[in-house]
Amino acid sequence: MPLPKAELHLHIEGTLEPELAFTLAHRNGITLPHPTVQDLRAAYSFTDLQSFLNLYYELMDVLRTEADFTDLANAYLTRAAAQGVRHAEIFFDPQAHTSRGIPLDTVVNGLAAALDTSLRDHGISTALILCFLRDRPASEALHTLHQARPHLHRISAVGLDSAEVGHPPQNFTAVFAAARDLGLRCVAHAGEEGPPSYIWQALNLLHAERIDHGIRALEDPDLLAHLARTQTPLTVCPLSNVRLRAVPTFAQHPLPALLDAGLLVTVNSDDPSYFGGYVHDNYEALRTHLGLDEATLRQLARNSFTASFLPPERKKALI
Ligand code: ADE
Ligand code: ZN
């Protein structure tokens, strides 16, 4: 049985399985550039983050209606339940949809229809994290935050994702300050492909409470010591890092070194449809390729609840 766990780094658009992509394309009268599911799967061979993002954004074209977003979220929640997930803090990328004419209301209402019944239907409590695309202007992010105001009761936090290098967190300082003023929590992708200085910026300028990925923290001993002292969680995604070649092989993944340095590490799936596994599969890969023992895997699962935005009582009940 998979360990009970929280998933804290999961892009809902990255759970779009090829089969569902074809179903939605058919339903919406769209022709995909890949003729079959097999052809599409064959395109899942990436050389870096950007090569993945190109396909990730292209396939989102099949997401058009509220029902599409509901079906996407329900498909993820069904899989997540089978992987032991009891709580999921789910990223979504509004600008990837509004920029192609899909209203934010359609996205949020569609996702909410699945999330609102998730505890009852799947035994999974949920939270939504609105991510800003860092390779688009900060002014657009601010506009997105304003558009989201009618939905703030459904949104727990803001995040920062998309192409990292050349798009430092400092560009989004004002947007994150505005989000905090609205009562939102803050997380940010940093140190996936970008340098340790981006992690410092996420902490000091964006006031990120968790760092998504953060694996390049290992290159900066002062940063490593800071993250250990403050117990700032890292949401690490091992299969993603291997597939996007942020690390050369699974055997060389830095997760054990991050644990040895005393960091609050969690294990997550990022974009599981694209990276060959959901969250339990990431735990199993850590066992198989890095020899992590049962006690360490249990600690990682406990960390996932500790690092979540759950209220203390539910945390205690789940740990
Ligand atoms: N958007 C979806 N997956 C991502 C990742 N791994 N890094 C940055 N942005 C993303
Ligand atoms: Zn991510």
What's the number of domains? 1
Question: How are the strands ordered across the major sheet?
Answer: 1-2-3-4-5-6-7-8
Could you say which small molecules are bound to this protein?
adenine, zinc ion
Distance between the termini: 16 Å
Model regions low in confidence, pLDDT < 50 over at least 5 residues: none
Shape: globular
Strand content: 5-15%
- Alpha carbon gyration radius: 18 Å
**CATH homologous superfamily placement:** Metal-dependent hydrolases
Largest sheet composition: 8 strands, parallel
Function: Catalyzes the hydrolytic deamination of adenine to hypoxanthine. Plays an important role in the purine salvage pathway and in nitrogen catabolism.
Active site: 192 (proton donor)
Protein name: Adenine deaminase
Enzyme class: hydrolase
